[in-house]
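Each record in this resource describes a single protein on a pair of labelled lines. The shape at a given residue is found from the number at the same position. The record below illustrates this layout:

***
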Amino acid sequence: MSPPLDWLSRLLGMMTVRGQLELRCAYGAPWQVVYSDSAAGEMPYHIILGGSAVLETPGTGKPQSLCAGDIVMLTHGSAHILGDGGGARAKPAREREELNLVISENNGRGPRLDMLCGRIVLAPPHDRFIRAYLPARLVIRTSAEEARRGDAQAQLEGLVALMRTESSAGNLGGYAMMNALSAALFALALRVAGEAAGRGEGGESPTGLLALAGYPRLAPALAVIFNEPAHAWTLTELAELCSMSRATLIRHFQDKLGRSPNDLLTDVRMALAANELKRQGVSTEAVAESVGYQSVAAFRRIFTQHLGMTPADWRRAQTQAHTQTQHTAD
């Protein structure tokens, strides 16, 4: 018998998360890096180890100043620009390979920047879930001046320090270690962002699940949706768990999440169903029942609406993708 888990643990447990550290940037001002939209399922991240930067994300907020200790995650894979903010024409960057890492640098003589850049890769359909329920960009502050100290904050600082060391030392197994640390960075950054939202901290108003994390009265509803998604939860039951009326529950979900409790419950069910359909020998009927559907026809209809293909087509596509991956590895 498994214990109940918090919603973030359940969310991360639903997903296949892979991390990749790609560059260590060493720039002197003037510098600028322009990033186009990422491929589906890819979320760029940047860690400011030293110096400062200005982040621009067209259409998702004002330019934001970053300093040493700040972590940026573009959870929707959005196009963005990082620069020194001075307005001068950027010095061209060049890349050179070192053991386990690529270094990008320029010959700018102004204030220096030290930055790690990588990406988090989520397997489908979980990338859609993240885009639906997390803000387009997350900025996590870890410097003593910006953040309240806490266990999660200290853990994140320790993780970043380890990533800095691994990106500098050329250690045996360093590439694998940096990628594993990148995946851990995603989980820990979400924890810190959620805790900051719960304390009402952070430079931007939280949205999506992080906004709900900042409203403790809704925690019971989140807990049962993620821990017991197969139960036929009604709005009345969820509202009673949160000690509020149905109308109040719906209003808070719409205000903070932009979706209803039933929308979240269905999305969690479909994410779990997509995982189950990857398993060999598990029937569609069994998958439907495991996520709360007594009617296979209803399950097929909702699954197809969410993923754009039937459960059978999804299973076939995942089997083909797995086979292709094995052939590539061989």
In short: The mean pLDDT is 88.
